[in-house]
Amino acid sequence: MNNLTESFQSHFGRPAGVFSAAPGRLEILGNHTDYNQGFVLSCAVEQKTSFAVAKAEGKVCRIINCKFTGQTEFSLDELDSPVAGEWLNYLKGVYYELRKRGIEPGAVDVVMDSSVPLSAGMSSSAALEVGFCFALKQLYGIELEKTDWARVGQGVENDYLGVSTGLLDQFSSIYGQQDSLIMSDFRTDEVIKNVPVPHGYVFIVANSMEKHDLVDSEYNVRRRDCESAAARLGRVYTGVKALRDVSMQQLEQAKAELTRLEYLRAKHIIGENERVIAGDKLLAAGDVEGFGRLLFESHESSRVNFENSTQRLDYLIELAKSIPGCIGARLSGGGFGGISIHLVREDAAEEYSSRLGAAFKSQTGEQPQIIKCGIGGGAQAVDL
Ligand code: GLA
Known about the structure:
By secondary structure, the chain is of the alpha+beta class. The protein has helices at about 1-10, 90-100, 125-140, 145-160, 170-175, 220-235, 250-255, 260-285, 290-305, 310-320, 350-365; strands at about 20-30, 40-55, 60-65, 70-75, 110-115, 180-185, 190-195, 200-205, 325-330, 340-345, 370-375, 375, 380-384.
């Protein structure tokens, strides 16, 4: 915090008024279930995007992003034109979404920095949106429920940038609990409970180093397939509003009503919902090995049914099965590249990470980014 506030003072010649920070997230179990009104186990990570901000005169927001050199800016009069792939869009998009809700905060000067790996599947974009939302909330006294702030961030992705993502990323960034997983229900958009991580285990993140970019990915196609599967199943069974409402047995019985792809996508989602419910019970019963098996099963279902894995991700999961210390591993987040998560015995974590890194490098020629991931708390904002 001190570095950012000092840079703010030296760059803008006055003190910042508010500091805010929002974390990235890990999807632990429950892949693509959020927009199917299902369940997810997730957590916030210690890596964050932080902002020092102050109100500015006029309509121009001036931004120093410590990741890049120089100052960049945008005008509140020119919010209607996102440019694909530009990080600045995530900030402009927040103003755009607030304006849609009749909320018009004034301009800001910003110094920001981030420790969330970019385009990896740890929700660097949600951290950017939520951190900036919280900065504006604190600075301009904007009163919205926490879940509505998550929806503002989601709106940036859905409406401003055209990716039909669910609420998971922004929601986890806001509701994350220090040292605990959260289990969320995305029918009611609520955290159902906190789920402690079993003692003596850690999550290791291994990046496949394939840029995971939802805008360019098949994410929207997957979502459409899930929704059309749910619509067809709704004609077979009464009361089906989303894949969340369908059991595996019902899916099998109605298989002939679905296209092959609809069937496979639905199988993944229904299986994931079952695994989240089962995983919570296994953790409560202290069966960490059983929970780990569900992580492996989840990955297998991604690979075979949802087809959102890649060769590199599959390789990381194969390695996880052969290097001692790992209880379970899977791709995490949207897929199509990005990260895998590995639940590893804490006493084996260091050795595991180095063996995983070495094996991946010798196969692919590239050193993977490997992070022992601490579980952080949710987004915060304070007056300075
Ligand atoms: C991305 C999306 C989320 C969620 C995950 C997959 O992170 O932003 O809404 O759908 O993929 O679970």
